[in-house]
Design brief:
Blueprint (H helix, E strand, L loop, with lengths): L6 H5 L3 E7 L3 H12 L7 E6 L6 H9 L5 E5 L5 H15 L4 E6 L2 E3 L3 H6 L9 E10 L2 E2 L3 E4 L9 E3 L11 E3 L1 E2 L4 E4 H7 L11 H9 L4 E12 L7 E5 L2 E5 L6 H17 L3 H22 L3 H17 L2 H5 L4
Parallel strand pairs: 1-2, 1-4, 2-3, 6-13
Antiparallel strand pairs: 4-12, 5-13, 6-7, 6-12, 8-9, 8-11, 10-13, 14-15
Helix pairs in contact: 8-10, 9-10
Length: 326
């Protein structure tokens, strides 16, 4: 398959960006500036604020309320990244944009990132309906693009693309990409459904990509680059059973609730090997509990959070939960 830029094809498409924002106005400012400076212009930027408490709305209204390219969507409560993206994507679909590019507020798109993606618009005829930028952190590709592996669900239901593959490939076909830097055709979203807002955060992109990959192909474009500004700093790790694990402060441990609850729900719904799924889950939880007992503070509170996640993951009504993506 040869790459050929089709200028007439790419110019007729209307492109919207949806930014999920929460309490990071300085990084958000850089993100917006990077999008406004794209060599291929975006038509609209929807900024969905997740009920920030640090003056983000005041900052946005003061600086961008008169910019016709930017629309500020103020949520009355924090709906997580899934709820924010759901809201922004739904708005972009209602306004009939052809492609929707997803961003976190700590993302910095390189000036030609969108142009590099738009070179592939003509490949819609080959059912390429999703295009993913490379997400770079500390000069290295992040391991958030890859291939779904629903037969071997744990520790992750996808296998990341190895960094060395980014160097000599114009494109890499994938079927999983974390939401940041993911550009999707509205046709694909209409077919697969919007991201499931009930998942709140962590794993929502996994469930969505399972659905997206059923209706269209997704290409990772290595020379389209988005820098992730705020990830990987000030992290502490511990070693357990010869593997390195991040130490999560108790005030952030709620993320494990959503991660395990959501992955249990997703595994119940989509895993293709039930035996491996349940055995893998037990192994993961044993490692978590050992780590808590050996290394962590607030042991009882952490264990309660994990047990609640397990309970809720198995308690979720699969069909009712799915409705929120429609």
């Amino acid at each position: 398959m040869d790459i050929k830029q089709n200028d007439n094809q790419s110019k007729k498409y209307r492109i919207a960006v949806v930014i999920c924002s929460f309490n990071r106005k300085l990084l958000l400012k850089q993100c917006i500036q990077s999008l406004l400076r794209q060599t291929k212009e975006v038509d609209k930027i929807f900024i969905v604020d997740n009920h920030s408490t640090n003056g983000t709305i005041y900052f946005l209204e003061k600086n961008y309320s008169n910019n016709s390219k930017i629309e500020i969507i103020k949520l009355k409560e924090n709906l997580g990244s899934a709820g924010a993206f759901y809201t922004g994507i739904k708005k972009a679909l209602q306004e009939k944009f052809d492609w929707i590019w997803l961003m976190d507020d700590d993302a910095l798109a390189q000036p030609d990132a969108l142009e590099k993606l738009s070179n592939w618009f003509s490949f819609k005829k080959n059912n390429v309906l999703g295009l993913a930028s490379a997400i770079i952190n500390h000069s290295m590709p992040m391991l958030n693009r890859g291939i779904l592996d629903l037969d071997n669900f744990w520790p992750l239901p996808f296998k990341p693309i190895k960094p060395e593959l980014y160097k000599n490939n114009k494109y890499i076909e994938i079927n999983f990409a974390a939401s940041i830097g993911l550009l999707l055709s509205s046709d694909l979203i209409k077919s697969a459904g919007i991201i499931n807002k009930k998942l709140f955060v962590y794993g929502d992109d996994v469930e969505w990509c399972i659905r997206l990959s059923r209706y269209g192909r997704i290409f990772l474009i290595p020379d389209s680059i988005v820098i992730h500004n705020n990830l990987g700093s000030n992290l502490n790790f511990r070693k357990l059973l010869f593997k390195k694990y991040q130490i999560v402060p108790i005030e952030n441990f709620h993320r494990y609730y959503y991660a395990y609850r959501n992955l249990i729900y997703i595994g119940r719904l989509y895993s293709t090997n039930r035996f491996k799924f349940f055995v893998g889950l037990i192994i993961q939880l044993i490692k978590m509990f050992i780590g808590i007992f050996l290394f962590d503070n607030n042991k009882i509170k952490r264990i309660k959070i994990l047990f609640t996640a397990i309970r809720d993951g198995f308690k979720i009504n699969l069909q009712d939960f799915q409705k929120f993506s429609n």
